[in-house]
Design brief:
The structure is a single chain. By secondary structure, the protein is mostly beta strands. It has one domain: Jelly Rolls (Sandwich), CATH 2.60.120. The chain has one helix spanning 13-16; strands at residues 22-28, 43-47, 61-67, 74-80, 87-94, 99-104, 109-113, 119-127. Strands 1-8-3-6 form a four-stranded antiparallel β-sheet, with no helix packed on it. A hairpin with a 6-residue loop joins strand 4 and strand 5. The protein is globular. The chain starts with 12 loop residues before the first helix and ends with a strand.
């Protein structure tokens, strides 16, 4: 993963969140590549497909997500439990350039996927 640059986030965002965990995830739909997981077409913006129990936080973290302006639509949601037997809850679809912030607590991961053959880069910043 590469760090965020001013080309992926609006001006001033990086300064406001300097020192916060920030990263980018390449989200690929089925058929684009094998991806890092044995489940083609599902990538994780936070968490993992292998966490069996939801992770509680005394104070929820906030995951700020921004889909690349030149990318494709990204469907995202939360996972509770492992991917093979857990519960996926779709939250919505981010079109190119869309941003959203979600609370992260009592889940195992935040997943993302694109339609078959498509891909995008999603920028993420974690705050408390």
């Amino acid at each position: 993963m590469r760090s965020l640059s001013s080309t992926t986030l609006p001006s001033g965002i990086l300064d406001a969140h300097r020192g916060r965990p920030s990263y980018e995830v390449r989200v690929r739909g089925p058929g684009v590549g094998p991806g890092p997981w044995p489940w083609p077409g599902i990538d994780f913006l936070w968490g993992s497909p292998n966490i069996p129990n939801p992770i509680p936080f005394a104070k929820p973290l906030v995951l700020h997500i921004r889909n690349d302006l030149f990318g494709d639509d990204v469907t995202f949601g939360t996972l509770v439990g492992p991917l093979t037997g857990g519960t996926q809850t779709q939250i919505g679809v981010l079109q190119p350039g869309d941003c959203v912030s979600i609370q992260v607590s009592n889940i195992s991961g935040v997943y993302a996927t694109c339609a078959a053959g498509l891909e995008s880069v999603v920028a993420c910043i974690i705050t408390d």
